[in-house]
Design goal:
Layout (H helix, E strand, L loop, with lengths): L7 E5 L7 H16 L3 E3 L1 H4 L8 H13 L2 E4 L6 H12 L4 E3 L13 H11 L19 E5 L7 H16 L3 E3 L1 H4 L8 H13 L2 E4 L6 H12 L3 E4 L13 H12 L1
Parallel strand pairs: 1-2, 1-3, 3-4, 5-6, 5-7, 7-8
Helix pairs in contact: 4-9
C-alpha cells in the first residue's frame, strides 16, 4: 500500500487569548500532523503577530487558507479570530474538520457551533452546505448589508431597514440577512449558505458595526476572503484603537477599498 496522501493544513485556533492548556493541545496536534508528513500552517507560529492594525495578519492568514487543502479547527467559542478565520475558510470552500469535536456542543438555536460540527461530520466533502436560496434581480448593483442579527437592539434594526429602503430607492439591490435570508430546518446551516451566495455576487459590502458579534465576525471574514469593497455605514461608532482590534481592521479594510 502507498503512503497516506500528504496535505497542506491550516489550523484555525485561538492565538492571543489561548490558554496554556489549549496551546499545549494545539501544538501537540501540529507536531503529530507534521510527523506524518503534512504541511501545517499554524498562525501563532507562522504568521508574524507584530501588527498593530491587523491587516497584515489577516492578509497572511487569508493567503495561507487559499493554499491549504484542508482546515483543521481547534474551536473555542470565545475566540473572535477563529470566527473571522472560519468565515474566510467558508467563503474559500475549504473542507473543514474539528481537532476538538468533543468540546463543541450542538445548540437548538442558530450558532456557529452547529456550522462547524456539520462541516466536521461531512468532512472531507468540499462544500456540503447548499442553500435553498435563489438570488433576486441580479441586473442591479448588489449590496450586502453586514449588520446586527436576531436579538439586536430595535433602534439598530430600524436604522438598517431605513438604510435598506434608501438603497432600493437609489436602484441598488440590497441583501440584509436578517430580512432577506430564508432560514429553514437546520439551525443556521441554510442561512450561512445563502449569505455566502449573496456575499459572493455582491458588488459592495456595507457594514453597520455594533461590536465583534459572531455574525459580524463570520461575515467580515467572508467579505475579506472575497476581496469585497467595504463601506462603513456608521463610521462614528467604529473608532480605531491603539492596540489591534476588529474596529481598527475594519477601518483599514474600508481604506483599502477607496
Amino acid at each position: 500500500m502507498g503512503s497516506p496522501e500528504r496535505k497542506s493544513v491550516y489550523i484555525t485556533c485561538p492565538v492571543r487569548r489561548a490558554t496554556a492548556a489549549q496551546k499545549k493541545s494545539i501544538e501537540s496536534y501540529v507536531a503529530r500532523m507534521e510527523s506524518e508528513g503534512h504541511r501545517v500552517y499554524y498562525p501563532a507560529r507562522d504568521t508574524d503577530q507584530i501588527d498593530t492594525v491587523g491587516i497584515k495578519i489577516a492578509t497572511n492568514n487569508k493567503e495561507a487558507i487559499k493554499r491549504a487543502d484542508e482546515i483543521h479547527a481547534y474551536w473555542v467559542q470565545s475566540s473572535t479570530g477563529s470566527l473571522f478565520d472560519a468565515g474566510m475558510a467558508f467563503m474559500a470552500r475549504k473542507p473543514s474538520r474539528l481537532i476538538n469535536p468533543e468540546e463543541v456542543v450542538q445548540t437548538e438555536k442558530d450558532s456557529y457551533e452547529n456550522v462547524v460540527l456539520f462541516l466536521h461530520q461531512e468532512f472531507p466533502r468540499v462544500d456540503p452546505i447548499v442553500p435553498l436560496h435563489i438570488p433576486g434581480d441580479t441586473s442591479r448593483k448588489k449590496v450586502y448589508i453586514l449588520g446586527p442579527g436576531i436579538g439586536s437592539e430595535r433602534e439598530d434594526i430600524s436604522s438598517l431597514l431605513r438604510y435598506r429602503s434608501g438603497l432600493k430607492s437609489q436602484g441598488y439591490r440590497p441583501h440584509f440577512p436578517l430580512l432577506d435570508t430564508m432560514r429553514i430546518d437546520l439551525p443556521n446551516l441554510d442561512g450561512v449558505g445563502a449569505n455566502r451566495l449573496e456575499m459572493s455576487i455582491a458588488d459592495e459590502v456595507h457594514v453597520y458595526w455594533k461590536g465583534a458579534t459572531p455574525d459580524a465576525l463570520f461575515d467580515l471574514g467572508m467579505a475579506f476572503m472575497a476581496d469585497k469593497q467595504i463601506r462603513i455605514i456608521n463610521p462614528d461608532d467604529v473608532r480605531p484603537t491603539p492596540n489591534r482590534s476588529f474596529e481598527t481592521l475594519l477601518r483599514a479594510m474600508q481604506d483599502r477599498s477607496r
